[in-house]
Amino acid sequence: MRLHVSCTTNTEKIPRYYKPKLKGTLHKWLGNYQSHDGKYSTYSISNIDGIKFNGDFGTAKKSGLKFFISSIDKEFIKKIILGIKKDNTMFSGITVDQVSVEADPVFDKKIEHFFVDSPVLVKRDNKYFFAGDKKADEYMTDLMNKKLKAAGYDDEVQIMFDPHYKKSSTTEVKYRDIRNICSICPVYIKGTPEAIAFAWNVGIGNSTGIGLGAISK
Which CATH entry fits the domain spanning 2-102: 3.30.470.20, 3.40.50.970, 3.10.20.30, 3.30.70.1890? Predict the structure, then answer.
């Protein structure tokens, strides 16, 4: 299930590395609700779309701000909606204006192509792996299959960065005092409709719970 969130413009400058603030807002909305996270995150958060940055800070574009949160846990999404109704404030003077829920799409192809809505982190043993490296595909696949198994699924998937995408790039993402180098590149996911829908919700790569690896069609 995916929750689309539309927001008002900011009244204070938005920090470039706003993800800790967004994560804090999410925790505020959830209250004491415990998602079925366990060892692995079962949700993903997109970038906030509509911010124009100048150096370390940014402001909202005239088109407004929007982002989404996806999870395999429907109660998780419902709890966020209730939290927003109680307190729709976020950070930098941003407030939630409107929300809408999107059900899981039906993925009827054996291989589906996705765009990334937040940078993809692939990290193993303190080493980064990027689009174009077969190891990155292998590690993304391995992590997703572990998440599937932990959630009780018998299915497996295969994930790979789009080898034909010409504008693949890397970007630095800072979360508090940790700096990570991530890829920006579409991906292909091969698997059953249920397993692909699972990936659509939980996101790909490492650290999806802090706002990395969100995907969409």
Answer: 3.30.70.1890
